[in-house]
Amino acid sequence: MTLPAEPPAEFVPSKSETPAASPRTIVGVRFMRVGKLYHFDATGYGALKSGDRVIVETTRGRQLGEVVNIVDPTKASPPEGGYKPIEGLASPRDLALQQFWKTKETEAMINCRERAHQLGLDQLGVKIVKAEYSSDGARLTFLVAGPDDGQGKLETKSLRDDVQAVYPSQQVGLRQIGPRDVAKLLGGMGACGLETRCCSMFLTEFSPVSIKMAKEQGISLNPDEITGMCGRLRCCLVYEYEQYVAARKTLPRRNKQVLTPKGPGKVVDVNPLKESVFVELKEGEDFRTYEFMKADLQPADELEALKKKAASPCDRHESGGCSCGKAQKRNA
User: Fold this and answer.
1) Which residues contact 263 (CB under 8 A, 6 or more apart)?
2) How far apart are CA 55 and CA 7, in angstroms?
3) Whole-angstrom Cα distance, residue 304 to residue 325?
4) Distance in angstroms (rounded) separating the CA atoms of residues 95 and 14
5) DSSP β-bridge partners for residue 9
6) Contact, 163 vs 172, CB < 8 A?
7) From CA 172, how far away is CA 138, in angstroms rounded?
8) Does the pTM of the predicted model rise above 0.85?
9) Least CB-packed of 37, 109, 211, 240 within 10 Å?
10) pLDDT > 80? residue 322
11) Is the pLDDT of residue 315 over 90?
């Protein structure tokens, strides 16, 4: 097992300067290209802009992140405990230090995998997916995935203790991640054939996905059709789900009787996004299916109700406002 090298003497984290008093500034910071957005208090650090690099303290150590946007403090919802302040703008030395430790991550991952193999954890389905140093090298976190059997948290204390002995200068931690996070980190082609998976290309957070979403959109429930490379339901089932739900509310349901320009018929299918309906009409002894737009249809039961109302006597003639000719005389 290769022991970690110490950074050159010139790679020492810079100390942040105390900012001058100024109006409150909240910034959105991202730590990876397609990662979750976190908000920090950047008050006193001047006019920050998108693309600026800042140093912040996180649960995973001192990290170097990129400013993505500036948030209006009056419209932001602060987390419990308030916003954490940024420690300062990243200097060229900070950027060089981060790059130095990144070059050590692959070596650390190989060492951790080697130790996991010696402990027999790989036989239990434990996988070391990635190693991450904090920007100053003080912390080393290994992202670990377990077997997809729903057994919950992995027991990796022995592995952490062994790796900690190899890296005494760093605080070593193991963080378990799910199959979706693994697919996002590894990247690659999507199950649909897209060159880059959605999660690696633009999804910053994972939304809950259910079989109901596939049913609502009329998608085949064949596992090969709705399962992503992570083994979970495809994230794209969420994309148009709300549009389908909203559109279906305005269209007649299947098996409902409707009136069309070609006569009465039964709804056999709908196309929510196109707002069209497929209606089965009887033509002689045969049945044929036609597609009609929503505006061309009228529910048969609704028309029947209108006919009954038109045929019933009017009850407004006594006030003098009736001209339908169907007034009923009140019994004396």
Assistant:
1) 281
2) 19
3) 22
4) 10
5) none
6) yes
7) 9
8) no
9) 211
10) no
11) no
